[in-house]
UniProtKB/TrEMBL annotation:
<dbReference type="InterPro" id="IPR050860">
    <property type="entry name" value="FeoB_GTPase"/>
</dbReference>
<dbReference type="InterPro" id="IPR005225">
    <property type="entry name" value="Small_GTP-bd"/>
</dbReference>
<protein>
    <submittedName>
        <fullName>FeoB small GTPase domain-containing protein</fullName>
    </submittedName>
</protein>
<dbReference type="Pfam" id="PF02421">
    <property type="entry name" value="FeoB_N"/>
</dbReference>
<dbReference type="InterPro" id="IPR030389">
    <property type="entry name" value="G_FEOB_dom"/>
</dbReference>
<dbReference type="InterPro" id="IPR041069">
    <property type="entry name" value="FeoB_Cyto"/>
</dbReference>
<keyword id="KW-0547">Nucleotide-binding</keyword>
<keyword id="KW-0342">GTP-binding</keyword>
<dbReference type="InterPro" id="IPR006073">
    <property type="entry name" value="GTP-bd"/>
</dbReference>
<dbReference type="Pfam" id="PF17910">
    <property type="entry name" value="FeoB_Cyto"/>
</dbReference>
<dbReference type="InterPro" id="IPR027417">
    <property type="entry name" value="P-loop_NTPase"/>
</dbReference>
<feature type="domain" description="FeoB-type G">
    <location>
        <begin position="3"/>
        <end position="165"/>
    </location>
</feature>
Amino acid sequence: MSVNKIALAGNPNTGKSTLFNTLTGLKQHTGNWPGKTVVHAEGSFEHNGEQYVLVDLPGTYSLFSNSADEEVARDYIIFDQPDATIVVLDATSLERNLNLALQVLEMTNKVIICINLIDEAEKKGIRIDDKKLARELGVPVVKISARNKKGIDQLLDTLNQLVHGQIVTTPYRMTYSKEIEEAILKVESKIKGYFDGKYPSRWIALRLLDGDEELILKLQNHKNNRQGEEITNGVPVSVKS
Ligand SMILES: Nc1nc2c(ncn2[C@@H]2O[C@H](COP(=O)(O)OP(=O)(O)OP(=O)(O)O)[C@@H](O)[C@H]2O)c(=O)[nH]1
Ligand SMILES: [Mg+2]
């Protein structure tokens, strides 16, 4: 049976680790990400007979690799290509939190928006129209309270449907000016050919147009390391000689 890799992303202090602990209980390992003094927590759980590995990414406000935390979170989504990324948002400051959500939506189709601290929002009289948000963002939106263990079953059922392809997403993507969109198209077609469509080409095109040279080196390294490997279900498997 295959194991589904799930990432938890979000701003600092949105309850990612609380959700992580709720889902994984005591089945977790912690350490540092390779070469970084950034805590890595990984745990596992089962739902409906399905196995999941959950990775608690560092909390960040963006994913532009301006810090070790951002780099770790970005690289995990781009290179490890989880089966789903749950973006945890704070219901009491949605507007600020949606910035990171939009960045994740540009990187992958497999996203669930999880609005946490819904109990706090209710206390403050904030009402969130999750259905409207889901329509506008093109991905499932689930409201939870990780601390009070509310909405967890719905989150897990949504996750189950997403990893089985029963939910098809159409993530919201920013449209830029005509000049930028033309430049994206040109760069994107080259990227698709060069990387065999393995990475999110529009997102890479945007990063390259932004002058992220370090990303080019990383992508090249990743491509070279993958040569001689066969990819099965998104997981590299060494080819037997
Ligand atoms: N009221 C309420 N508080 C919550 C909920 N979920 C988490 N918290 C609290 O929010 C605070 C931050 O939670 P964490 O789980 O540490 O947040 P985090 O996203 O892992 O934070 P970083 O690791 O710093 O990015 C803690 O005090 C939690 O107890 C919730 O559903 N309701
Ligand atoms: Mg945490």
